[in-house]
Design a protein that fits this description.
By secondary structure, this protein is α+β, with helices and mostly antiparallel strands. The chain is built from 15 helices and 13 strands. It is globular. The structure holds zinc ion.
C-alpha cells in the first residue's frame, strides 16, 4: 500500500534529527560564497547563451565547460555513450555520490537579442536559447564549487558528479547515459532547469513520456511527367501515413500528444521521390501506452507502404523519455532551502522588460514572479492530462531524483520560442541562476551531512515509487544516439554565430558586448528598432 509507506516516510522525516548548528553554518557560508561568485555565474550564463548550439552539436559549450571544470579540479571523462559532446565530471571520493545535471542545447530558429522586448534575431534563422538551457550548468557548477570548498576544508567524504543534458530538445541522450551506467554508483541526482519561479515538486510530473521515431520509405524514381507510372513515390507513403494518423488520433486517449515533421519530402517535383521520411514524437503517460502508440504508428506506416507499393524501412528511434517521477524526501528538504533563499530582488528595469514582452505577446503583464511557488504535492492520476517531456524521466526511474527550477525566465511565454531567449543573458537570468545555485549548494550540503536523508530517499524510491512500476528502457538494444542530427544546420550558421561569441576578457556582460540598452522596448512607432544586426 503506497499510502502506508508514504505515511511511514512522513513519520521518519518528522523524527529525523534536525539540522545541526554546523550544517546551518555551512549553508550560510555556501550562500555567501555563491553570492560572491555572481560574476563567475553571469559569465557562464552569457558564454553559453552566445554559443547557442543545437542538440548533439554542443561542441563549443562542452569544450568550455570541460576546461572550466578541469581548471577547478574535476576529473572529466568525455565522449560518454559514444556521444561526442557528452561528458561526466567528478570530484571528491567516497559516499554519498551526488550527481548534478542540466541541459545545454537550444532551439532551432530562436536566435534573439537578449534584453529586447520584441522579436529581434541576432542572426536571422539561427538557433538560439529559446528554452533557457544556457543557465543550468552555471547553477550546478557555482553550487558545486561552493560546496567543494567546504568539503576540502572540513574533509567531508563524498563525491560530486556533474554532467550535461545533451540534446534534451531531442530527448536524445539520458536513456543512453542510464544504459552506459553513468548513474550506477550515484546516490541522489539533482537536476536543474530554468523556470519563472524558484520551485521543486515530487511525484509524477504533469507531462508525458515519449518515443521519437523516424519512419522512412523507399520508393522508385521516375520522370514525374514523362513516365510517372514507372515511379513509386515514397512521399505518397509519408502523406498517407500522416493522413492515417490524423484520422486515427480522434480515437486516442486525451492524454496523448503526437506531432511530426517531414525531414525528407523528396528533392524536386519532376523526380518521383525515391526516398522520404517522417519524424514523429509519440507521447503518452506511461511506458505501456507509449509502446501501444508506437505499435499503432508502425501499423499505419506499413499500411501506407502497402497502398503505395513502397517499402517501409526499419523505424529508427531518435530519442525517448520516461515520464518523470521526483523524490519526495529530497524535494521536501530542497523546499526548506528554497524558502530560506527566496526569489531574487528584481530591479525596475527587470520588471519593465518582463511587462513589455508580456504586452507584446498579448498575455497579462504580471511581470516577474514576486511570490514563491508552494511545494506542489504529487498529482493524482486524474490530474495528469499530458504535455511536454524531458528525458530526466529516465534518470528519475533509476536513482532518486529531483528537479530544481530556478527563476531565470519571464512568466507567460510560449516556450521553445525566441521570446523565451530574451531574459536569458540579462540580469534576470543572472540573478535567477545565483538564487538557484544557493538552493543547490544548501541541498547538496543537506545530503552530505544528513545521511538519513539519502536512506529515506531510497526508501521512497524502492517502496513507493518503483513498488509496482519497473523501468524498462524505450530505446532498444540496437538503438544508438542520433549524433548526426542538427549537424548541417549548425554548420550553416556557426561561422556567423562565431563572430558574436561572448568575450568576457573584454566585456563585463554580453549585453555590453552587443551594445544593447537594458531594457529595450518596442519603439513608439511600433517598430522593433533593435532588429538590426549589431
Ligand atoms: Zn528544457
Amino acid at each position: 500500500m503506497p499510502s502506508l509507506n508514504t505515511l511511514l516516510l512522513v513519520v521518519q522525516a518528522a523524527t529525523s534529527p534536525a539540522q545541526s548548528p554546523q550544517l546551518a553554518a555551512f549553508k550560510q557560508e555556501a550562500v555567501r560564497d555563491v553570492a560572491s561568485r555572481a560574476q563567475f555565474t553571469q559569465q557562464m550564463v552569457d558564454q553559453i547563451f552566445s554559443y547557442a548550439e543545437l542538440g548533439f552539436q554542443e561542441t563549443e559549450t562542452s569544450r568550455y565547460l570541460v576546461d572550466l571544470l578541469r581548471k577547478n579540479g574535476f576529473t572529466v571523462r568525455e565522449g560518454i555513450a559514444g556521444i561526442p559532446t557528452a561528458w561526466v565530471a567528478t570530484w571528491g571520493s567516497g559516499k554519498p555520490v551526488i550527481s548534478l545535471g542540466s541541459d545545454i542545447d537550444d532551439i532551432p530558429q530562436a536566435s534573439q537579442k537578449p534584453g529586447v522586448a520584441c522579436h529581434a534575431p541576432l542572426i536571422e534563422g539561427a538557433p538560439g536559447h529559446g528554452e533557457g538551457h544556457n543557465s543550468g550548468q552555471a547553477v550546478n557548477i557555482t553550487a558545486a564549487l561552493a560546496v567543494k570548498k567546504i568539503m576540502e576544508r572540513e574533509h567531508l567524504p563524498g563525491t560530486l558528479q556533474i554532467w550535461p543534458g545533451v540534446a534534451e530538445e531531442l530527448v536524445g541522450t539520458k536513456a543512453y547515459f542510464v544504459r552506459e551506467g553513468v548513474f550506477k554508483d550515484v546516490d541522489i541526482v539533482i537536476f536543474s532547469h530554468v523556470d519563472d519561479n524558484l520551485a521543486t515538486s515530487w511525484g509524477d510530473v504533469a507531462g508525458n513520456g515519449l518515443v521519437s521515431v523516424l519512419f522512412s520509405f523507399q520508393g522508385r524514381s521516375a520522370h514525374a511527367a514523362g513516365a510517372p507510372w514507372r515511379g513509386r513515390s515514397a512521399l505518397d507513403a509519408v502523406e498517407l501515413m500522416d493522413i492515417g494518423w490524423n484520422f486515427r488520433r480522434e480515437h486516442l486517449r486525451l492524454q496523448q500528444r503526437s506531432h511530426y515533421v517531414i525531414p525528407d519530402g523528396g528533392d524536386q517535383p519532376n523526380v518521383v521521390p525515391p526516398t522520404a521520411s517522417v519524424w514523429y514524437y509519440l507521447r503518452e503517460l506511461d511506458y505501456q501506452h507509449i509502446q501501444e502508440m508506437f505499435a499503432l504508428a508502425d501499423t499505419i506506416a506499413h499500411a501506407a507502404a502497402m497502398m503505395t507499393s513502397t517499402t517501409l524501412l526499419p523505424p529508427r528511434i531518435l530519442g525517448s523519455a520516461w515520464p518523470g517521477h521526483f523524490n519526495r524526501v529530497v524535494a521536501e528538504a530542497m523546499y526548506q532551502n528554497i524558502k530560506q533563499v527566496g526569489l531574487p530582488e528584481w530591479s525596475e528595469a527587470d520588471q519593465r522588460l518582463a511587462k513589455a514582452l508580456q504586452r507584446d505577446l498579448g498575455v497579462p503583464d504580471s511581470g516577474l514572479a514576486i511570490k514563491l511557488d508552494t511545494l506542489r504535492p504529487a498529482l493524482k492520476p486524474n490530474e495528469r492530462t499530458g504535455g511536454g517531456s524531458d528525458d530526466i524521466g529516465d534518470v528519475s526511474w533509476n536513482v532518486p531524483t529531483v528537479t530544481l527550477r530556478f527563476p531565470s525566465n519571464i512568466p507567460g511565454l510560449p516556450g521553445h520560442n525566441w521570446a523565451n531567449a530574451i531574459s536569458m543573458a540579462t540580469p534576470i537570468a543572472h540573478k535567477g541562476a545565483t538564487a538557484g545555485a544557493k538552493v543547490m549548494a544548501m541541498t547538496v550540503l543537506d545530503l552530505l551531512m544528513r545521511p538519513e536523508l539519502v536512506t529515506q530517499a531510497w526508501d521512497y524510491f524502492r517502496n513507493v515509487q518503483t513498488k509496482d512500476i519497473k523501468y524498462q528502457a524505450l530505446i532498444r538494444p540496437q538503438d544508438r544516439p542520433a549524433i548526426e542530427l542538427n549537424r548541417d544546420v549548425m554548420a550553416r550558421y556557426r561561422p556567423a554565430m562565431r563572430a558574436l561569441y561572448y568575450n568576457p576578457a573584454k566585456y563585463r556582460t554580453y549585453l555590453e558586448q552587443l551594445g544593447i540598452t537594458y531594457p529595450t522596448e518596442r519603439a513608439a512607432d511600433g517598430s522593433c528598432a533593435a532588429a538590426a544586426t549589431p
